[in-house]
Specification:
Strand content: 15-25%
Shape: globular
CATH architecture of the largest domain: Alpha-Beta Complex
Distance between the termini: 18 Å
Largest sheet: 11 strands, mixed
Number of helices: 15
Strand order of the largest sheet: 1-3-2-6-8-7-14-15-13-9-10
CATH class of the largest domain: Alpha Beta
Number of domains: 2
Length: 472
């Protein structure tokens, strides 16, 4: 069995057919995790628990379960019974939940074997994965599967790196402004940010109840579709007929692109057109302006109350002030101490403004206007989706500067607006950059609630590009 090419769907089929044992797959996944310690992909590896679950499946497991015996990973802000759930921050290092988060319970009930908890940008507040609280390699920062000197992206950094490095073929992340899509794009894997509210959010360390959602990440769109089906109890999706698909392209989402990303995206558009997709150039006036009025005000204001509520749920007795005191990563510490704890937002000329009135305006006015802009754009042009490069650049160097505000804004440039509108988006790999030889991703955002249609389109589009070659 070629583990570098193995997908979640293939693994599940082989286990169902009895041509491979869960113990063999799980042992290989654990060995690969340990051999790739320099990725810093894991906070916790549960070797004993995973091998016990795999052995139980091999002897008495239900072979008809959709994920029976398949090894997966879970981001370390999503609770798994009996394993620490640090949310990537020192104060929660020893918090061990007694129950699975509902999204994890769904995977476990479907037979999945959880091999460990993956590292992440601290408290999910960033896109680089440069976390100075945890490491298994010589240097800090979750590293890119294709180049250890570069970022994995974030905040679901370890899940993306583990899938890209062929340690496992699927797992869970979370997404507030791009956090399952950015690392999937930079590590050459697929992911779905579901419509907000479609997945249960209990048992997950939060940023913003308005914006947060768990999301599946996997080797292929077909694997993401399988995970989504398990979590939502859905029916299997079939690939869409591309001749019936209409996709919009918004010019303002094609700014700040590096040469490799620009070339790969344009080639992808040409290829989709050649296979019958109707491509429509559309304008979304005020998109950036409305998004700016929603993004930071909502995330930074809700982060306080939502984290206070979560800390109460943990039973650790931790206050949000105690949590903030121990934050290791300077970028996250600055955000918490300067904005989240004092309930402030950045104003003009380095001033600080009270967050509450700006937040109220975001929720009452700007977010509904952003949602209306998307709904109008999809309806007026009869679009199934809007396409754009998931990230404007390939992965950048992993160091403290990778977490700068400038890089944060750059890498969520295209993923953030859909997040703030609460609509679904899928990321799929389209190419290795011609010069960089690094993964490049395409995102398709669809109307609210169109997740399964979006996955059906992704299944068809994926066939045009295939899976990226494994890292050397």
């Amino acid at each position: 069995m070629d583990f570098d090419q193995l997908t979640l769907t293939q693994a599940a089929a082989a286990l169902r057919a009895g041509t491979v044992k869960s113990t063999a797959l799980t042992t290989e996944a654990l060995a690969r995790a340990k051999a790739n310690a320099d990725l810093n992909a894991f906070v916790t590896l549960d070797e004993a628990g995973a091998l016990k679950a795999a052995a139980a499946f091999d002897t008495t497991g239900d072979k008809d379960k959709p994920l029976g015996g398949v090894p997966v990973v879970i981001k370390d802000n999503i609770e798994v019974a009996g394993l620490p759930c640090s949310a990537g921050t020192p104060a929660l290092r020893d918090y061990v939940p007694k129950a699975d988060a509902p999204v994890v319970a769904k995977l476990r009930a479907a037979g999945a074997v959880i091999i460990g908890k993956t590292s992440m940008h601290e408290l999910a507040f960033g896109i680089s994965g440069y976390n100075t609280a945890f490491k298994t390699g010589a240097e800090f920062g979750v590293r890119n599967a294709y180049d250890r000197t570069l970022i994995a992206g974030g905040s679901s950094s370890g899940t993306g790196a583990a899938i890209g490095a062929r340690i496992v073929s699927g797992g869970l992340g979370t997404d507030t402004g791009g956090s399952v899509r950015v690392p999937a794009a930079l590590n050459g894997c697929a992911s779905l940010r579901p419509t907000v509210g479609r997945y249960p959010q209990e048992g997950i360390a939060p940023i913003s109840h308005t914006r947060d959602t768990a999301g599946p990440m996997a080797a292929t769109v077909a694997d993401v579709e399988l995970l989504d089906r398990v979590i939502t109890n859905g029916e299997a999706a079939l690939p869409a007929d591309l001749k019936q698909v209409r996709i919009g392209v918004v010019k303002t989402m094609l700014t700040n692109l590096d040469v490799d990303t620009e070339a790969a995206f344009q080639a992808a558009i040409v290829q989709m057109k050649a296979h019958g997709v109707t491509i429509v150039e559309v304008e979304m006036p005020q998109l950036a302006e409305l998004n700016g009025q929603v993004g930071f005000p909502v995330a930074l204001y809700e982060a306080y109350d939502d984290m206070v509520g979560y800390l109460a749920h943990t039973g650790t007795g931790l206050t949000i002030e105690a949590l903030a005191r121990e934050i290791a990563s300077p970028d996250v510490k600055g955000t918490y101490d300067g904005l989240v704890i004092p309930r402030k937002l950045p104003g003009p000329d380095n001033t600080l403004l009270d967050a509450r009135p700006i937040y109220d305006a975001a929720i009452k006015t700007a977010r509904p206007a952003l949602q209306a802009l998307y709904a109008r754009t999809f309806a007026d042009h009869r679009l199934d989706a809007i396409a754009f490069p998931t990230t404007p650049r390939v992965a950048i160097a992993s160091n403290p500067d990778s977490s700068s505000l400038e890089n944060f804004g750059l890498f969520i440039q295209n993923t953030d607006p859909g997040s703030n509108a609460g609509i679904p988006g899928i990321q799929l790999p389209i190419a290795l950059g011609a010069t960089s030889r690094l993964p490049i991703g395409l995102e398709l955002d669809g109307p609210a609630g169109s997740d399964r249609r979006l996955l059906a389109i992704g299944l068809a589009v994926e066939k045009l590009f295939g899976r990226l070659p494994p890292p050397h």
